[in-house]
């Protein structure tokens, strides 16, 4: 049920926002995910009222009951997206309708109330409108985190009757300290991320929590990220802890694991597939095994590999560490195809290149 119209969002402006001089200081080198804006967007849901009480208000800590359903049964989903300052001085989101659709898909899989897509986009627009001065200059962006959790106060295993949807925003610079570089990844043989019929395609916190032990293992081995294999055969490459994977072959083709319900349908992934096809590349969405990856890298059939996602955008993979032996991809430092696709994507996001697919959602 939906009773909310986009026009009913109210603004409860922050009574004491961060002063302009202090905000400018925080934006000099914001890093990633630690500098937050003044406001947040909120919408409530209940079975009785539907979606209601939509507003943008001061970002403050939450007070929730210890019996809130989310704390016990983990009904929670989220999204990640960015607002960019364009070359002409305007502001835009990148494919927000895709985030809105995926948010609804995640809610459906987690048996949660489905937020209408127009409400999702409106909440983002309203928050960016009031906090647009938090977008850093240069290569920075405003990282937006829409999320929703079960808020019913009830200890029983059932879908919640109440939900709280919120959006917070964070001023961000480069995801990787020191900027874009080729990373080293560890192939996890002990832990898997998701299985067929599970929640792998949903953007829910539980998927990420389950990945952290493998990520911790990767860091202990001197790697930046973990690579997960399929849960059934422990053979087929799926994705990193929070990014999709691509492989560039010597014949100029591009390969990525298919969407079979066990990996996240990344919006950056989909955008890169489109840009690659636009550039005339042959693209395969096919299974690719860890043994194939190693053999192709050693023979020179595979010349580049990269990961992609909203936060890091495109990240080259230079080395792979595995129990069956480490190997290097190409020259270990990335490559020209990865760089071209990265630059093509960023140029559209920043408004410095044509946008033939209508991906930019201008906020001016």
Automatic annotation (TrEMBL):
PROSITE patterns linked to this entry: AA_TRANSFER_CLASS_4
GO molecular function: branched-chain-amino-acid transaminase activity
CDD domains xref list: BCAT_beta_family
Gene3D superfamilies per the UniProt record, alphabetical: 3.30.470.10, D-amino Acid Aminotransferase, subunit A, domain 2
One Pfam family linked to the record: Aminotran_4
Amino-acid biosynthesis among keywords: yes
Keywords assigned by UniProt, alphabetized: Amino-acid biosynthesis, Aminotransferase, Branched-chain amino acid biosynthesis, Pyridoxal phosphate, Transferase
Keyword NADP: no
InterPro entries in alphabetical order: Aminotrans_IV, Aminotrans_IV_CS, Aminotransferase-like, B_amino_transII, BCAT-like_C, BCAT-like_N, BCAT_family
Cofactors required: pyridoxal 5'-phosphate
Pathway(s): Amino-acid biosynthesis; L-leucine biosynthesis; L-leucine from 3-methyl-2-oxobutanoate: step 4/4; Amino-acid biosynthesis; L-isoleucine biosynthesis; L-isoleucine from 2-oxobutanoate: step 4/4; Amino-acid biosynthesis; L-valine biosynthesis; L-valine from pyruvate: step 4/4
EC code(s) of this entry: 2.6.1.42
Catalytic activity as recorded in UniProt: L-valine + 2-oxoglutarate = 3-methyl-2-oxobutanoate + L-glutamate; L-leucine + 2-oxoglutarate = 4-methyl-2-oxopentanoate + L-glutamate; L-isoleucine + 2-oxoglutarate = (S)-3-methyl-2-oxopentanoate + L-glutamate
Class in the EC hierarchy, top level: transferase
Annotated function: Acts on leucine, isoleucine and valine.
Similarity section: Belongs to the class-IV pyridoxal-phosphate-dependent aminotransferase family.
The protein, known as: Branched-chain-amino-acid aminotransferase
Native source species: Sphingomonas mollis
């Amino acid at each position: 049920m939906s009773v909310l119209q986009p026009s009913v969002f109210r603004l409860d402006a922050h009574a004491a926002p961060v002063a302009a001089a202090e905000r400018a200081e925080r934006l000099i080198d914001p890093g990633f995910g630690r500098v937050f804006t003044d406001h947040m967007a909120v919408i409530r849901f209940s079975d009785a009222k539907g979606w209601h009480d939509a507003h943008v208000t001061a970002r403050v800590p939450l007070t929730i009951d210890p019996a809130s359903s989310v704390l016990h049964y983990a009904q929670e989903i989220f999204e990640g997206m960015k607002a960019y300052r364009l070359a002409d001085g305007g502001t835009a989101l990148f494919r927000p309708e895709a985030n809105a659709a995926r948010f609804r898909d995640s809610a459906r899989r987690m048996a949660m109330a489905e937020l209408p897509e127009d409400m999702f986009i409106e909440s983002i627009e309203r928050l960016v409108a009031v906090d647009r001065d938090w977008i850093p200059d240069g290569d920075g962006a405003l990282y937006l985190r829409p999320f929703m959790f079960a808020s019913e106060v009830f200890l029983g295993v059932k879908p919640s009757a109440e939900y709280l949807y919120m959006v917070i925003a964070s001023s961000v610079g480069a995801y990787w300290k020191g900027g874009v570089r080729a990373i080293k990844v560890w192939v996890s043989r002990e832990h898997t991320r998701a299985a067929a019929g599970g929640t792998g395609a949903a953007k829910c916190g539980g998927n990420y929590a389950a990945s952290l032990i493998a990520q911790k293992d990767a860091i202990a081995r001197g790697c930046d990220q973990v690579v997960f294999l399929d849960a059934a055969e422990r053979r087929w490459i799926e994705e990193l802890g929070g990014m999709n994977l691509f492989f560039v072959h010597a014949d100029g083709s591009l390969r990525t694991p298919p969407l079979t319900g066990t990996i996240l349908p990344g919006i950056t992934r989909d955008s890169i597939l489109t840009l690659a096809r636009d550039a005339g590349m042959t693209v395969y969405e096919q299974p690719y095994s860890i043994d194939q990856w190693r053999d192709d890298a050693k023979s020179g059939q595979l010349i580049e590999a990269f990961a992609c996602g909203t936060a890091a955008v495109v990240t080259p993979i230079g080395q792979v560490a595995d129990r069956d032996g480490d190997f290097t991809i190409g020259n270990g430092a990335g490559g020209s195809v990865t760089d071209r696709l990265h630059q093509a994507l960023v140029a559209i996001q920043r408004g410095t290149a044509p946008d033939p697919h209508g991906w930019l959602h201008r906020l001016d």
